[in-house]
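Residues pack. Consider this:
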Amino acid sequence: MTTAPYAALRAAIPGGPSAPVGREELLGRLERALHLRGRALLTGPAGVGKTEVALAEATRAEARGETVLWLATLPSDREIPGASAAALVASVAASVTWPGLDSTPPEASAVFDELPGPQRTAVAMLCREAPLDAGGWDPIALRLGIAQILRTLTYRGPVLLVVDGVQHVDADSADLLRFALHLAPPALRVVAVETPEPYGEAGEPYREPHRPDDPHAAHLWVPSEADVLLVPPLHADEIAELLIHHRLPSRMAGRIHRASGGNPRLALAVGRSLADARTPVHHAEALTLSGRARDLARQLLGAAPLAVRETLLLAALALRPSSTLVRRAGRPNAEADLAAAERAGLVSLSEDGSLTFTAGLLPSTLVHDACWAERSAGHAALAEVVDDPVEAVRHRALATDSPDEDLAAEVAAAADLARRRGNNALAAELALLAAESTPGRHGTQRIARLVDAAEEAARAARADLAMRAATDLLARDAVPADRVRARLAVLDTAGQGLTGLDEMYVHAMEDSEGDTALRAAVQLRLAVKYVLADGDPQRSRTAAVESAALAASMGDPRTAAQALTVQARMERALGEPDAEAVLAQARALELAERPLGIRNAAQILTIRHALFDDRLTDARDELNALLPLVQRRGSVEDTIELFSTLAAVESRRGACAASLAHAGQSLALTLEAGLSPGPAWYTLALAETAGGSFARAASYARRSVQASEEEGDRVFLSRSRYALGRVQLINGDVAAALETLRRVQADERAQSTVDPSMLRWHEELAEALLAHDAGDEALALLDEVRPVAARLGRSTVLLGCDRAYALWLAAEGRTDEAAQLLTRTAEAFGRAGLPLERGRALIALARVERRRRRRSAAQSALHTAASVFERACATPWLALASESPAGAAGENPGGGTVGEEALPALSSLTEAELRLARLVSQGASNQEAAAKLYLSVKTVEARLTRIYQKLDVRSRAQLATALRP
């Protein structure tokens, strides 16, 4: 049975609630608790998704044919005796479906007609369907009546009762339900959803919450530790998935996660604020936090008493808030206030008293909504009690509204000290504060400080501060050189999102006229833009060459090294023979800088080239030497790039577990820094393809495609499509793989990419074409790429082409040649230290051997492949190699495989013919099969003719019989 309130709630959730994002493991725990104990309490702060989890469990229960009762309480119910119990009875009476019955549903009144007279009268009084006697309803009869109603429901099968908002259940209803559940049979299971009440009944933080006399009075049963399930906030990657699920932009997932603290309701509100903005919010701009997002934050904060909010405001103003600091700053009850805020899910307290807000939107809203006098008084109080002179200067500057040169100089000195400590983010904030504290009569000094602030923000990857400093500077009478430096700082913090900054490039070029050093710096940024945003490596190379020449003429080795690195990257892509020599020049300049680890572009590109060439041991050794230096001294972008490259190296080497770990670190750092997650998702797609899950790999690849499209990043759009097409091909979704890989081909050709080692799509597309019965096109593609790979010395690219060519030979019926070539190719991959490629070649060999009717040879190839994958922890590939010898031979209608022994004639069919045979045998018409396989009807007819001839059948019925085991 489904109650009407539940049905309405379920219908209001778009896309269905069966698997809320990030809650699969929690749902498993919930089902285990219900199976073992029959009771479960979901608890957590408002907006964290408790109702969605309960709704998902209710949907699963309904799918199993169980009766579902949904009781959603309201805050006002607590003050009305019997309100929740009456609502439960009404929900039973409003039942709309009864699973398992095809006839007209029975009248809900039948449930009540079975009640004895006194019980039926008491229930009628509760629901105000009968007048109340002078003494009210009979409490014993009512207790027994509610218990009997629930028991009667279980006669028809299992029942799931969901009480959403158990904290609002009135005392009388709680007593009735406790009694009924105590007598209920095991077939009645209960999920209670609770939002803990942190404050006293009068809104006082120093009192216990509702019903302090009985610790279990608010519960419908005495909960044990096994019953209580805390619904946690979502991780940053899960927030990204949530945004995608709701068709919201995901490129800001890291910043949205910080703003929301992983609270799904807050995250969606922030995401919708960004989506509704008049113009797209750039990475270098502050998040749009008005409207619904701010209102939700105010609701969470508004439930707190005034004393708690005043204490929280002090904590929001502090850099390193703690209960001790807040108490010393004038809040004597700080510990009690903060404990109440922690119960409300607003802050997290550690054992040493330090605290963090659970969502960045909360302190920003507190500060945003406080008046100047409140903020000033708070900063002044904190300035007197903090024990760090840097923090004291910061608070003194924020406590005054009057610019003061002496104070500004102190703040600038504090920024220098923070930088020397390695706290770049604080240094950037202080540098901007120093500029804003500079009096207007010191205009030149203020502009100089704004330039310093913008560049400091760029070093700290604080795009928002860089944009603030640049906006302030550009509104003033600054010289062209200062305007260029400020704009370059903004460009350096833009990450992958360069498409919306064309005007900034134009003005930077204009202002750099006549300044050779600045023109070199601007040309360097243009070289990056031309390849990332415009997909034009030729133009990028030209700009890089000009930048390097200008920088060299000015004796600027740093800019020259960076420009030569971009030039080498483009020349590698364009197939130029001098790419390695140019890179060696860049690396020599870079290594001359001390200390090492600060500028790393040339060293990282050297490692990437080793990866492209499959010199994996060299790449790994250099990575392991460079990574610790970069983590200590380099930028977060370089650290992310190193982890990403390390993940790619380890996946090629067959160290799949290490690859997944490094890819996860790359994503975590990316989201923490607020950068676009597209590149990190691409890396995770590769790592998951190697050693995780093909399904997760496809999911990450699709996310990367979406984020790259949002950013206008042409480079990673092509890469992520390649990752998606590859896993689609491996999964057997040939039509989708062919479409995706053709787009990669178009992207790469539009970008004039020549070197086939940088993105190995050629062999994947050739295999997809073969599976699609387009052998001539596949052969033409292989003939096109082979000479280029040979000229550039890309030996492992040639091995991939050999594997694809062997499949072409097999499709042409030349299976002996195909088997010989695949055997040599597998051995060559093994010698090259590429175990996953070796295993893939062995799987292809097993398929060819099956077609040659050499069952033992096929089994041997599969066993060898399985051993290779097992040593590499390549879980999804191991599953492929562990299939029965018929794994590629056929499938029965139930989804299982059909053994080769049962289908000896099938070995004569190509894979494309086998797919068509399966579709037709399952009842597809020629037109339906053509649509599903993206073929013309004439091609389907011709292919069916060949299938009939090979299997010696004359009709679809005979074909279906031939495919049966």
Observations:
- The first strand starts at residue 39 and ends at 43.
- The chain has a mean pLDDT of 86.
